[in-house]
């Protein structure tokens, strides 16, 4: 039953219906006022069509459970650099991970049997998964005096797996070299110049294996924490055609055991701190002239599996959605959440496969938020976070509002930036009075709102409400219909304390979205 439920849930992440319901609002006695100003004249950046991604770690059952789903998936993690791949040679037995405290990450080297790889690819095919596979980048390395690992990457085993994958007709959408080996590294590190040489070799292997094929997978690296000097040197020394995606990881909240996680999540200044990572990487890509795209390859907020009833509870949606909104402003093309399942930060409950609150946040983003990011500013309290995109598969825009204040409802008026208003006025002179009248009527139409709140207002709750209704699986273990509320466009948006609101405004004038 659990396997079938998992398949259904991840299928629904891209196919759930969004309907309408009677108006619902939640307001506190204290009300603050503010204005969200959206500039729809031009997009300031864009994401991939499928921006939402989730990760799956290599941890064996002794560490945690894992599963697979039809999302954009990055299969990798801490133990990927200790995985070898079965070659079918009986002289080289394929043994699983074994606990050993003296080994890096507490486990011995483990092997991926070809039979298991076959089974996984069969499931990927059935579910329509888009898979990014993380390769072991430590084969052949030797310790050097500066504490890093030196010597060229021994790519023989990885090349064998890639060729096997191609020969079997399996579709792997991207091959990523290494996990958290950049900069200071985690457990081990490799210098940027050596990593660049190894990446160039991976590109050669991939090009050779896929020669004559219409499909060409992406090549990604380094899947580590952002270090400006290291990333710049890596990009400069990598051949311009070798690297499709430069990937980095985010755990900016610190360790999962930190008792102050909630305070960090609800602190706008703390959230703002991560913007420099996105902007600096964007600027490095521009300055080096690289055509490489930036991805967040893994982001769990709090490392070492997060914290139960924080990173798997309602409060974490403030961090998660803020990250999606912020990263999309700086040309981040894909954002991979750690994890789909496993640890205390999964989109799905590790034991039941039922959705945690962030599952619904991801679903609403995917259904309502299009790739084009717009400039949005909020004039008022700093406790409101505002992001805007062109609406997905619909007219107008979708505005995302996060209220980090637990005491006040924000009354938000949404307006267009002055230059968009001027452009709109100029364009109106070209039309007849009848057309202008019709346009005015549309501007006074209705919008759709999706209000997310925690059960009983408890930020640590793993139950989320949409417009006052509990989101839970139905009797057939199906995802509930996500019902919006229709609101008169002349009314302000009311954002309740500790709540999240997606607002689809189809009549908003945004030339960037036409």
UniProtKB/TrEMBL annotation:
It holds the Pfam family Glyco_hydro_79n. Gene3D superfamilies: Glycosidases. GO terms for cellular component: extracellular region; lysosomal membrane; plant-type cell wall. Keywords: Glycoprotein, Hydrolase, Lysosome, Membrane, Secreted, Signal. It comes from the Eukaryota. It is found in: Lysosome membrane; Secreted. Residues 1-25 form the signal peptide. It is a peripheral membrane protein. GO terms for molecular function: beta-glucuronidase activity. Endoglycosidase which is a cell surface and extracellular matrix-degrading enzyme. Cleaves heparan sulfate proteoglycans (HSPGs) into heparan sulfate side chains and core proteoglycans. Belongs to the glycosyl hydrolase 79 family. This is Heparanase-like protein 3.
């Amino acid at each position: 039953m659990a396997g079938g439920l998992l398949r259904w849930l991840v299928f629904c992440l891209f196919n759930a219906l969004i309907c309408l319901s009677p108006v619902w609002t939640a307001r506190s006695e204290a009300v603050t006022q503010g204005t969200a100003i959206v500039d729809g004249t031009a997009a300031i950046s864009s994401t991939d069509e499928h921006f939402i991604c989730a990760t799956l770690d290599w941890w064996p059952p002794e560490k945690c459970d894992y599963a697979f789903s039809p999302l954009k998936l990055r299969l990798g993690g801490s133990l990927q650099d200790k995985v070898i791949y079965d070659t079918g040679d009986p002289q080289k037995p394929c043994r699983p991970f074994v606990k050993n405290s003296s080994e890096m990450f507490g486990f011995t080297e483990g092997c991926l049997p070809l039979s298991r790889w076959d089974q996984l690819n069969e499931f990927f095919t059935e579910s329509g998964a888009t898979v990014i596979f993380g390769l072991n980048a430590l084969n052949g390395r030797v310790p050097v005096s500066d504490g890093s690992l030196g010597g060229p990457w021994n790519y023989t085993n990885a090349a064998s797996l890639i060729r096997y994958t191609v020969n079997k007709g399996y579709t792997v959408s991207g091959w990523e070299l290494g996990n958290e080996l950049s900069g200071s590294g985690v457990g081990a590190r490799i210098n940027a110049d050596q990593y660049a040489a190894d990446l160039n070799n991976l590109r050669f292997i991939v090009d050779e294996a896929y020669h004559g094929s219409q499909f060409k997978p992406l090549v990604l690296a380094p899947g580590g924490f952002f270090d400006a000097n290291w990333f710049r040197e890596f990009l400069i020394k990598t051949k311009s055609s070798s690297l499709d995606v430069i990937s980095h990881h985010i755990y900016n909240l610190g360790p999962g055991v930190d008792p102050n996680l909630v305070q960090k999540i609800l602190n706008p200044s703390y959230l703002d701190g991560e913007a420099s990572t996105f902007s600096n990487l964007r600027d490095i890509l521009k300055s080096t002239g690289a055509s490489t795209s930036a991805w967040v390859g893994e982001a769990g907020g709090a490392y070492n599996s997060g914290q139960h009833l924080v990173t798997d509870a309602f409060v974490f949606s403030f961090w998660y959605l803020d990250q999606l909104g912020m990263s999309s402003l700086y040309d981040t093309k894909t954002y991979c959440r750690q994890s789909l399942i496993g640890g205390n930060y999964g989109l799905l409950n590790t034991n039941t496969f039922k959705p945690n609150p962030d599952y619904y946040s991801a679903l609403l983003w995917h259904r309502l938020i299009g790739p084009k990011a717009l400039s949005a500013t909020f004039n008022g309290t700093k406790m409101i976070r505002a992001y805007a995109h062109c609406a997905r598969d619909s007219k107008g825009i979708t505005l995302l509002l996060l209220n980090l204040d637990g005491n006040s409802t924000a009354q938000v008026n949404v307006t267009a930036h002055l230059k968009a208003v001027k452009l709109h006025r100029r364009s109106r002179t070209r039309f007849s009075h009848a057309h202008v009248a019709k346009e005015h009527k549309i501007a006074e139409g209705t919008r759709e709102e999706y209000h997310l709140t925690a059960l009983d207002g408890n930020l640590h709750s793993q139950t989320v409400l949409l417009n006052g209704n509990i989101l839970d699986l139905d009797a057939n273990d199906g995802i509930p219909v996500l019902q919006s509320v229709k609101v008169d466009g002349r009314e302000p948006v009311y954002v309740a304390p500790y709540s999240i609101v997606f607002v689809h405004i189809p009549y908003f004038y945004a030339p960037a979205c036409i």
